[in-house]
Amino acid sequence: xxxxxxxxxxxxxxxxxxxxxxxxxxxxxxxxxxxxxxxxxxxxxxxxxxxxxxxxxxxxxxxxxxxxxxxxxxxxxxxxxxxxxxxxxxxxxxxxxxxxxxxxxxxxxxxxxxxxxxxxxxxxxxxxxxxxxxxxxxxxxxxxxxxxxxxxxxxxxxxxxxxxxxxxxxxxxxxxxxxxxxxxxxxxxxxxxxxxxxxxxxxxxxxxxxxxxxxxxxxxxxxxxxxxxxxxxxxxxxxxxxxxxxxxxxxxxxxxxxxxxxxxxxxxxxxxxxxxxxxxxxxxxxxxxxxxxxxxxxxxxxxxxxxxxxxxxxxxxxxx
Length: 320
What we know:
Blueprint: E1 2-9, E2 12-18, E3 28-36, H1 39-47, E4 60-68, E5 80-83, H2 89-94, E6 101-104, E7 113-115, H3 122-126, H4 128-141, E8 148-152, H5 156-167, E9 172-177, H6 180-189, E10 193-196, H7 202-207, E11 214-217, H8 222-231, E12 237-240, H9 252-257, E13 261-264, H10 270-282, E14 291-296, H11 300-307, E15 315-319
Parallel strand pairs: 8-9, 8-11, 9-10, 11-12, 12-13, 14-15
Antiparallel strand pairs: 1-2, 3-4, 3-6, 3-15, 4-5, 5-7
Helix pairs in contact: 4-5, 4-10
């Protein structure tokens, strides 16, 4: 038997004993070293209706391979790995990373399993997935090094986008948010400037400076998308990295008149996972700064409550 953090409904996640998953010929069993709480996990905890009751969530994790099926190629017992859950998300949610052990079905090297170098810790390995999301967005945006880029929202994905932009050679980065703690962290990770929109008016601030060539929307609210379309330069780009749960109207005429590129971005490719691994391995940017709290698996319920507080928490790490 092994421990697992099991979702049972709204604000209910309990540590339970479950059988260690059985490895079939195409599977890999990972002893989880670290798993961070994602926004999707938090929404499931807050609403109780995103995943079915009994789900072991957690898709941002890394650890050691303790067993590999006979048909698995290139992955062996003792390898330190991280998991690339998309697009096969459902396979991860059945046996996710909020547990001592996680089973990866149809394990394929450099597809849903990537081997970590010794220079990357398990905690850093658990950050590769969200960092790859930000890198994929930057690749979709394809900014020029001299571009002025504004990021709306300094949550984990907004901060990972800062890291991705810096790695792409972009230095003129402005980040906006209500949380001063997260804005301070954005500066530490490489932002050139930040704006606390709880203290200063965004419209007045942006109106006094050149229009940015690109805006990355990571806030997930209608006003942010409206502001992005209004404030980006003619021939500029607006990248949508936030997840919107409701439909709304946008000003298509402004997009047409200003010839704006509206770009969607979701998840990542294996190439971007490898880019994330290279960025962390280089040591040029300390991605561990994203980790604000660490909890044992036994304290997972408290960890989720801490993750709710955007003024205190960025990445909460579970250490089984």
